[in-house]
Design brief:
The complex is a heterodimer of chains A (297) and B (323). Chain A is mostly helical and 297 residues long. Helices cover 76% and strands 0% of the residues of chain A. Chain A folds into 2 domains: 2-61; 64-292, MetI-like (MetI-like fold, Orthogonal Bundle). Chain B has one domain (61-322): Orthogonal Bundle (MetI-like fold). Chain B contains 12 helices and 2 strands; from the N terminus they run αααββααααααααα. In chain B, helix 8 packs antiparallel against helix 9 and helix 9 packs antiparallel against helix 12. Residues 1-19 of chain B have low confidence and may be disordered. Classes of the chains: A mainly alpha (297), B mainly alpha (323).
Amino acid sequence: MSATTTRLGAASRHVAPEAGRARRRRFANLAATVLCAVATAILLAALVSILVTLVSRGLGGLHLSTFTRMTSPPGSGGGLLNPIVGSIIQTVLAVLVGAPVGLLAGVFLAEFGTGSWVADVVRFVSDMLLSAPSILVGLFVYLILVGPVGHFSGFAGAMSLAILVIPIVVRTTEDMLRLVPTSMREAAAALGAPRWKVVMLICVRAARKGIATGILLAVARVSGETAPLLFTSLGNLSWSVNLNAPMSSLPVTIYQYAGSAYDDWVQLAWTAALLITAGVLIINIIARLGLGGRDST
Amino acid sequence: MDATPAGGRAGTRKVDTGLGGKLGDQLFAGIAWAAGIVVLLLIVGIILVMLVGGSHALQVFGVGFLTHAVWNPVVDHYGAAAPVFGTLVTSFIGLLVAVPLAFGVAFFLTEMAPGWLSQPVGTAVELLAAVPSIIFGMWGFFVIVPVMAQDVQPALIDTIGHAPIIGRLFSGAPFGTGLLTGGLILAVMITPFIAAVMRDVFNSMPAVLKESAYGLGSTRWEVMRKVVMPWSRVAVSGGIMLGLGRALGETMAITFVIGNSNRIGASLFAPGNTIASLIALEFPESPAGSLKLSALLALGLILMVISFITLACSRLLLRQRGN
């Protein structure tokens, strides 16, 4: 920076056009700096506005009864018990199914598939699945798990979420396994450990923190997903933990209630929105803390 | 890696099993391969299922499905032109706003902000990316739409609205909902994704390139524009494509603010729809086996083709960076 100032200083002392150009350059620099700060401020303002709106509109409807009562017709003081339980069941089931598949696929990419074209294709496809429109996943699961059976089900909802879990876990698992030093694999192999033990007990274990972070992020991602559930678990206004029947969930309840004409339903939608956002953001923050400053290195 | 000691301990403890190791290895390799193949099959399955499900509508309407702007359940006539138009327009508006914003955020975080500021601000931007899309929809509907209807759109109509050609884009009744609002919400949603890629790319640039430019007397902006931008052009385009891929398939947020009307028009204030919002809205009224459901699946196929091409481009551009 000191070089810049000396040069500019020297230039301005010399000839007039040089001084003009220096001023222009400094002005352009200042303008760019201000614009960048403004862009950042706009984005932060959006986040703050979302959080403030959620808290100011959602907190007022947050009572103990929100967690103990079920959704009910407008005006009868319903709560969010069945959507909360439904969301938890579907998310847990989705992670139980999706995480092992994603983990093993990540192991395949990092440990077994290196160099083979199959691994390249799987990696490519997984990355696309990561950003693919979730509504299409919902349509897919509808056609294979809802259409043939003839009715919507919590199981189908969980499966659509599981499909969204897989690519997130694949990505983090592969990345984390690649950070495990080869010398550890070699040391274990030299001691006579079979390959599967080297991978599962040494590599996956060494990378378990990062892998757990990936699974947490997957939980955060799918617990707010709405579009795929519309076509699979549909939502259920009464109590049901039957995986073979339509199941309620927080995001779908928000969707149904937010557009309704009843004030108490809209209020419940805001409260549900506050709960889901708080949950998702807290899981994200925990995951980031758990990752332990990987970004800073 | 604080897990190293744990891994080492496991290694010494578990070496005594030579027996069954070979079989275990083969079994495990088989399971890992199978998991990889499952991921492949998912994509193939999604494509096949959409293709089969949408084939009925595609056979009935042929190429006209893409060019007709009709969506009329009463006479069972469906066309994809309006939702495709809405999808492209909202995504384009989204990118138009998001790209400069993301550039600004990424520059700010990597070059301008001091460490104590860039860390928390970076985390906040990442958290914005984690907010579920239905929350953006509610926020857009209850907070942004009134602002658009009362302040932004009347102001735009009074100023640019009178301009000769582009004025038509900013004419019509200020409902608040519509293509423009949808595009702006998309912009807020995809900016964190694009900014995250840009930030990684800028950070991965060899410091010596920037330092030599500074050493020659460049200002920060000149280093950005003439050194960082050319160097990171390919990867940044990949990040922008990634954001576009997200915008194309966004469903819940758009459904809340787009106005949901099947039409093509010049005005950006007019209500419209997108492929994803039309599917979300019409699906509940589409019985299994109906032509309408088939038309929705054909729309899903179109969305998948568009977004997969976009995402594939994004991957290729980002990969060229050579890791």
